[in-house]
């Protein structure tokens, strides 16, 4: 890219709109950190650990669903992403379930905020711990049993 004469001083280039166009304003230190992670293999190791952990968490949530919610809903193993979509039996009011879960300290994403399928929820396995996922599923089970 040809630098306009008005930006030819290196000090001006560093703080100019040109720098923003070239690297979106990221700092030199962060650029060097990324370079080191990519060239040393640290990034690849980190990604492998992350993929392994996410797979473990996904499989754990699927086990919990199979063990505790099979009478109330169905789902499938996701081939990607960080969520499992759960489709509840048509007699289950997911708006009510959402509110009751929220009041019990469990956050679920009801399907009605994404589409017009009112009997679905989206459960994340990326952020919550194993213990939090188990507590959340057990809470949902208790609420469903109480209301059923």
Quick summary:
Residues 10-136 form the Aminotransferase class I/classII large domain. Helix content is 54%, strand content 11%.
Report on this model:
It contains six helices and four strands, in the order H-H-H-H-E-E-H-E-E-H. The protein is of the alpha+beta class and 148 residues long. The protein has two domains: 36 residues, no CATH class; 95 residues, Aspartate Aminotransferase, domain 1 (Alpha-Beta Complex), CATH 3.90.1150.10. Strands 1-2-4-3 form a four-stranded antiparallel beta sheet. A hairpin with a 7-residue loop joins strand 1 and strand 2. The model has no long low-confidence stretch (mean pLDDT 88).
According to DSSP, the number of beta strands is 4
CATH homologous group name of the largest domain: Aspartate Aminotransferase, domain 1
Strand order of the largest sheet: 1-2-4-3
Q: Whole-number average pLDDT? A: 88
Distance between the termini: 67 Å
CATH topology of the largest domain: Aspartate Aminotransferase, domain 1
What is the molecular shape? elongated
Q: Mind summarizing the main beta sheet? A: 4 strands, antiparallel
Secondary structural class: alpha+beta
């Amino acid at each position: 890219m040809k630098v306009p004469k008005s930006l030819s001083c290196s000090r001006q280039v560093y703080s100019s709109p040109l720098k923003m166009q070239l690297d979106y304003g990221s700092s030199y230190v962060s650029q060097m950190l990324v370079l080191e992670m990519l060239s040393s293999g640290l990034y690849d190791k980190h990604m492998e650990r992350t993929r392994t952990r996410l797979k473990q968490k996904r499989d754990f949530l699927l086990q919990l669903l199979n063990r505790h919610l099979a009478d109330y809903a169905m789902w499938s193993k996701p081939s990607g992403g960080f969520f499992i979509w759960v489709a509840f039996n048509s007699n289950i009011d997911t708006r009510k379930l959402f509110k009751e879960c929220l009041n019990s300290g469990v956050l679920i994403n009801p399907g009605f905020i994404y589409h017009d399928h009112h009997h679905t929820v989206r459960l994340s396995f990326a952020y919550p711990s194993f213990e939090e996922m188990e507590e959340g599923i057990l809470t949902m089970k208790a609420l469903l049993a109480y209301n059923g």
